Each structure stands twice: as structure tokens, then as C-alpha cells.
Amino acid sequence: MTALKKLFQHTFIYGLATVLPRMLSFLLVPLYTAVLPTSEYGEISIIFSWIILFNVILAYGMETAFFRFFTKEDDKKTVVSTATISLIFTSLLFLLAAFTFRNGLSTISGIPVEYITFTIFVLTLDALVIIPFAWLRANEQPVRYAIIKIFNVAVNLGLNVFFLVALPRLASDSFWGKLYIEDYQISYIFLSMVVASAITFLLLLPFYFKTIYKFSKPLWKEMMRYAVPVLIAGIAFAVNEAFDRILLGWLLPADIADEAVGAYAACYKLAIFMTLFATAFRLGIEPFFFSQAKEKNAPETYALITRYFIAFGSVILITVVVFADVLKIILIRDSDYWVAMQIVPLILLANFCLGIYHNLSVWYKVTDRTKFGAYISIVGAIITLAVNFILIPSMSFMGSAIATVAAYGTMMLLSFYYGQKYFPIPYAIKKISLYFFGSILVSGICFYIFRNTYEFTIPLWIAFLTLVLVQEKQAVKLLLRIK
Questions:
Q1: Cα dihedral angle (453, 454, 456, 457), rounded to 10 degrees?
Q2: How big is the CA angle at 324 (ends 321 and 328), to the nearest 5 degrees?
Q3: How far is CA 176 from the centre of its chain?
Q4: How is 371-408 classified by DSSP, letter by letter?
Q5: For 27-50, what is each residue's pLDDT tens digit?
Q6: Closest CA to 346 of 427, 457, 268
Q7: Cα dihedral 15/17/20/24 (nearest 10)
Q8: Which end of the chain is more exposed for a tag (fewer CB within 10 A), N or C?
């Protein structure tokens, strides 16, 4: 229980590092939807989707490889320096190549060269802080990790508010008027991202001065053999995560594409509560999984952690679904975006499945079978692309939501099947099935049958919450003891 309590403590702190920044950034949704028409919000959503893909490519699985080799190698300094040198080289190479060919990229993509330039700098700066952040996690410094992450988003949020709200009102002043450029909102958004990323890099710059630079080619080859399947899985994951918006832009008629992407992207944000929970949990458990791999009771510990995740994830699913129409008024101010609200339960379920998948994926990480992660993610990407191509022309963004559920649900089931084959874990199948399928059933009833009938849906929500709390008293008590 001591190890589990430590896990919960770190997960709680990583949760703050994830939840607070994303909640701060989530405040940008009502800001963007208030100042940008759906078409322009759709445009920046597509660019953000490309950023997700290139973030994965520029990381190329080195973060996960770093954790694996940092825990198993005796010479940890060489692991740190080898991973750091590798990412410095590839990041600067990308910066040079992308900056040289940015005009051609603009012509091919149809994205203005100014936005591409901003994006190049953001991607490079974000790649350069991958290992410093990983080092903080590996050395159990979650507080420092959290502070820097939160400060990054606070700067980004503050600059967005200044550029999009304050500066236009100050434009009549002679000094501020020189800074204000009319119809420059999207560029201001990207400029804010660049400044925030640059400040984060400066805060982590001491890591680079403390590192003893020693590159081990044999170690790097081993790390890359471990990392490449993770990269492939990451690319496939990026396709699952972001290509729905890109495909909506490609497959829908040009006169409605940007508006549909904007509405879909805004309502998709209501799944952030599930995403925050899953991400915080993953940040806490990833180092823990590796550190526990050699323990005799590791499978039992993994099973218990997964049960806790599904229990609390099911509560989040029902809670957001029941109060979705309250949340939309608070977070998505413009009613033009609400046309995509029917996707919310599906996107929540999809992200729930993804979170379960990440918990189940421990088996291929601790057994060095990362190629299975690549295989499973590729299957998910194929499903994403195929279902989107089939359903978008007739169902628009609802087709994309169905594709997301199908992809992540399949990945979850495949990981469970192969995990039990190669690294059996004694999951509490009956209990987690009760939470998982029970939450889906209750959510479907509340949203698609009794939506906004709170005299019926709230008692259902309370009943399910009570069920979980009674069944998981031990976990709740453990969480309440965290100091």
C-alpha cells in the first residue's frame, strides 16, 4: 500500500500539472468561440491537429525509451546525455529544414506561411524540453514539473487575453495602437504559443548546462530499437487523435467544412475532463509501472491500478454526460457551435477507452514488446481513416465521433487480448465490466433519452456514484489520506 500511496501522491501532483494547465487553456475555448467565427476556429483547429502529429514525430519515442533505459541501466548519466544529444540534433535539423522550405509547405498545405513559421518555432521549442521534463519525472520531482507546466499555460492564456481582448480596446491609445494589428487574431494566438514555449525552454535551460555530454552510439541504437515502434504507435495515435478534423476539412463541401470543423472541435473539448483524468493517471503510472516491473506482485498491482482507473473514469463519463448542457453554456458561449453536441457522449467514451488502453499497455512496455503497441495503434489508425472516409460524407462530424470510438475501443480490446497472452494480469473482470458497461448504459439513457430531464438523470448519477464509492472504499480512503 505504501507504493500505491506514493503513486496516488505523484498522480495527484501530475494531475494538478495536467488539470490546471489544461483548465487554464480550456478557458481559451470560450475566448476563441467568442472572438472567432466557427470557420476561423476550424482553421486553427486543423493547424493544431498537424501540431499533434509533428510533436510525435519530433519526439520519435525517445521519451518512453528514456524511461525504460533510465530505470534499467546503471550508468544513468549516459542515458540522459545520449537522449539529450539525440533530440538536440534532430530538433535543430528540423528547424533548419522546415524554415528553409516553409514557403513550399505553405503552397502544399494551403496554410499561410506566417502560421507555418510560428508553428515551426513552437514545435522546435517543445521538442527541446522533452528530455528535461522526462528527467524531472524520472527523478521524482513532480512539483517542479507541475510549476513549469502551469506557468507555461498561464503565460499562454495571459497573452491570449491581452492580444484578443485587451489590446483591441487599447488600440485608440497612441502607444498600444502601434502594437495592434487588425484582423490578426490567429497570428496573435500563435505568437502567444511561441512566447510561452520559449519561456518554458528558458526555465529548463539549466538542465542543459548540468548535463555531461557523452554520446554512446551502442546505447543510442538500443534506445532507438525500443523507440521506433513507439514512434510508429505515436504516429498512428496522432492519426486517431487529430486526423478527424483534417478529414472533415478535406471531405466536406468547402462552403461548410471550416464551420463543421469549428463546431466539432469546440464540442470535442467537453471531453477534456476525461482526457485530463487519463493523462494525469498515465503521467503518474508510467514511471511507477517500470519501477514495479521486477516485483513479484507486479501483476496484482497493475490489476488493482486498472480497476481504480476504470472505476473513477466511469464516474467522470456519467458526470460530464449528465451535465453536458450546463457545461456547454459555460464553456462554449456561441450557440452556433452547439450543433455538434451529440458527439459529446461518444467522444467521452472514446477517451475513456483510450485511457484504459494506456493502462493495459503496461504489458508490452515492461516486456520490451513495444512493436505490439505499434501494431495495435496502426490498426486503430486504419479504422480511424476508413470509418471517417465512409461516414463523413453522409454523417459529417457524427461520423468522426463514431470513428474515434471504434478506433480506441478496438485498441483497448486488442491490448487486453494480447496482454493476457504474453503477460497475464489478474484483472477483476466482473467489477470493471460493471463499471464500464454500466456507465455506458446510464450515460446513453441520460443523454439520448432523458436529456435535460434532471429530476431523472441526477438520481441515476447519484446512484452510480454511490455504487462506485461503496465498492472502492479502500481507494477513496487512500486518496483522502494524501498529504
A1: 100
A2: 160
A3: 36
A4: HHHHHHHHHHHHHHHHHHHHHHHHHTHHHHHHHHHHHH
A5: 787 888 878 888 888 888 888 888
A6: 268
A7: -140
A8: C
